[in-house]
Amino acid sequence: MNKFIHGETYVPVSGKVFDQEEINNAIEVAKEGWWTEGRWAKEFEREFKKFLGINYVSLVNSGSSANLVALASLTSSVFGDRRLKPWDEFITCSVAFPTTVNPGLQYGLKPIFIDAELDTLNIDVDKMEKAITKKTKLIMVAHTLGKPYNLKKIMRLAKKHNLWVIEDCCDALGSKYDGNLVSSFGDIATFSFYPAHQMTMGEGGAVVTNNSLIHKSIRQFRDWGRDCWCDTGKDNTCRKRFGWKLGQLPHGYDHKYIYSQIGYNLKSTDFQAAIGVAQLKKLPGFIKKRQENYKILYEFFRRYKKYFTLMKEDKNEEVSYFGFPLIVKPSAPFTRNELTEYLEKNKIGTRNIFSGNLLRHPAYINRKKSFKIVGDHKNADLIMSNAFWLGVYPGITDEMINYVKKTVGQFLSQFEK
Q1: Which CATH number fits domain 20-273: 3.40.640.10, 3.40.350.10, 3.10.110.10, 3.40.630.30?
Q2: 147-175: average pLDDT
Q3: 2 secondary structure, DSSP code
Q4: Hey, do 20-273 and 284-413 end up sharing a CATH topology, with the first three levels equal?
């Protein structure tokens, strides 16, 4: 690593941490010549299953695609009365990344937007039950910046009202709730391997489940909508490839080309998977470093609680942190933008909390007639206006952290008496 120079070397909020192993694996894929999903994808899925302790993993080309496939899989007719249909309702949060919400909109579902909590940035679970109606079929929300939402309450509501649960774990790989990894609670969970996340494939994602019927549907929607479940490059796994009679096709039509869903091609490549195999080995170390960086920043910022709202600590959680979030209190003598512009000017990267309030964005304003908005979402508005996050990813060194603390301290000193 190049020498860190205060005020000249940029402190990024996120980034890739890798070594020669990732490069060697990618070169091996190039030499093998099998560049689509192949043996490396199978190896990653096998090892990821072990890490999560879950039955089924399907690699996809991004976390956003993971969310799309997860929701699409529940529209299959095999789920009978529980299948998702247009105008069914789903519970979600206005503080969200768009692709947690968009799959429901794209399939004609009606989102029920609930406000977030200021000290978790997650959905306000206490407001959920009153929003549930006979039309509600699904809860689909993300664990924001790695912090788990109250899974105990959410799963209790899901069981009581017979709702599907899709856990968007894209920010939260490695986080635990009540001693169990997030992704092990809902019917389906999704992950992203974009460079900002706990591990990366460059692009890439995964959809996981413990339900074999859901897994079959996930694979169908991911793989063009075909009825065949053969792995890429494999034939006749069912041992009756030319013995099927489905739809209005003639008996014996090649099962590899029979389509039972309106699907996509959202598979990953073996290049991505090979990089992921190397990254997965490093994941426990990545998570530990993120936790260490978060703790250092927390101990620093807790001295300035008169200016900032920090995230509450919960004994039921073990967080694999995506970033370090802060909310500038309305009573503070400075604004969020004044602070973040100062930090950026001094080569310290910052990011807003994704969409802030998704309902304020151009793509959603004109669609509000097809939404149900519970409450006034004043917390989402405050998060939109006053919240931001700093990086904790493993590439941020102790020297960088110390520089961040020093620079923030310099900014705040003008307001100290």
Answers
A1: 3.40.640.10
A2: 98
A3: P
A4: no
Query: 398-413 and 336-345 helices cross at what angle (nearest 10)?
Result: 130
State the average pLDDT over residues 241-267: 90
How far is Cα 97 from Cα 352, in angstroms, rounded to an integer? 11
d(CA 410, CA 343): 10
Annotated active-site residue 197? The verdict is yes
130/133 Cα distance (integer angstroms):
8
Distance of CA 273 to the CA centre of its chain: 18
3-state SS class at 236 = coil
pLDDT at 1 over 70: no
Here the tokens at position 264 are 């996509």
Q: Which amino acid is at 175?
A: S
- The CATH architecture one would assign to domain 284-413 is Alpha-Beta Complex (3.90)
Closest CA to 52 of 144, 164, 180: 180
pLDDT score, position 229? 79
Q: What is the pTM of this model?
A: 0.95
- Beta-bridged to residue 123, according to DSSP, are 116
DSSP string, 265-331: B-PPPHHHHHHHHHHHHHHHHHHHHHHHHHHHHHHHHGGGTTTEEPPPP-TTEE---S-EEEEE-TT
Identify the band that residue 94 occupies on the pLDDT scale cut at 50, 70 and 90: very high
| Tokens found for residue 145 | 């910046």
Q: What is the mean pLDDT of residues 238-259?
A: 88
Q: Which of 6, 143, 161, 197 is catalytic?
A: 197
Contact 160, 132 (CB under 8 A): no
Radius of gyration of the chain (CA): 23
Residue 253: both structure tokens together: 């039509």
Mean pLDDT (the chain) is: 95
| Alpha-carbon distances of 93 from 38, 96, 143, 165, 339, rounded to whole Å | 37, 6, 11, 14, 27
Report the percentage of the chain scoring pLDDT > 70. Answer: 100
Provide the pairing of β-strand 110-114 with 188-192: unpaired
List the domain boundaries for the chain. Answer: 20-273, 284-413
